[in-house]
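Sample A.
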Amino acid sequence: MKNTILALALATAGLAAAPAAFAQDAAQGNAQQGWYVGANAGYAQVQKGPYDNGNFAGGVKGGYRFALNPDTSLGAEVGYVYLGRADARGQYTQNYANYNGDNGKSKLQGATAGLNLRYSFSPNWYGEVRGGAFFAKGSGLTNDKTNPEMVNFNSTRYYAGLGAGYNINKNISVGLNWDYYDGSQSDKNIHLPTNLYSVSAEYRF
């Protein structure tokens, strides 16, 4: 997985040579272009099998965004997200051997690599869609009510999300976001699909 992340990071860096060509075709407008870093924090919720609750979550990311036209930008980014821990519930806890109220908790985190498409409605307001690969690493109870087991897993899945925000100035913006992370590994019967509701901040160089 480390090699995959490195390759994607290098590919993102390689886009630095392309933006100038796009910029020549994009008239001056509200579209953003350049390197950026960001962070977000909020509440992650799991609703599947043994889990129906959530916890604090957050992440960091960085990438390069270039203008496609006066109001639209495309960015390539990599990041890392921590999606918290959820408590097991119901029959899963009753049938999980040696359950003590804590050892059935799930955990999910992982690296991301993807694209974001940002549309600037005005110099201040923007909307965004994004998605890509989620290199999930987690643990939790299997989706088996009669005989749940605690398993660890690593899988390559996907994430997707929406956001809207406000540009405080040309370098700094804040936003509200919803993202979905498909954290699962079917052959181990572990499923932790997670919705993340967060606030974010971004700095553009």
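Sample B.
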Amino acid sequence: MSGRSHEEGLKDLTLLGNQNNNYLFEYSPEVLEAVDNLHSGRDYFVKFNCPEFTSLCPLTKQPDFATMYISYIPDKKIVESKSLKLYLFSFRNHGDFHEDCVNIIMNDLIKLLDPRYIEVWGKFTPRGGISIDPWCNYGKPGTKYEEIATHRLMNHDLYPEKVDNR
């Protein structure tokens, strides 16, 4: 038989395949789940594009909408995507600035996964005639990934892509 076995992290998952999901409307990092990375001997990127991210302005409580891009090079663990969806949904009634949201997401994923490298980019739709697109990254200290993070930060947005969804 090929494919991932129960012993390779599947037995610990509580959300995948569960039809009775409890959608949490308040920030809930505890919903995140991880499984073993069966390919930890190689570097590769995992990228999530989440075009329906919402949070609230902490002062006005007006909704903010964004596409959230999460890219990471895993080490020993990978995030289970259904838990990530429910986690991102939990920001729906969370009041924080855009910059805070991307950093909170990155910090929670670092805590869960201890990735080699990660970056989170929130492309928020404009409000009041201005859009805010915070971007943050992290490379594991003392490794080449820390150097990659510094390089990416210093060269981020040198060639801004065409934005046509606003």
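B remarks: The first helix runs from residue 81 to 89. The chain has a mean pLDDT of 88.
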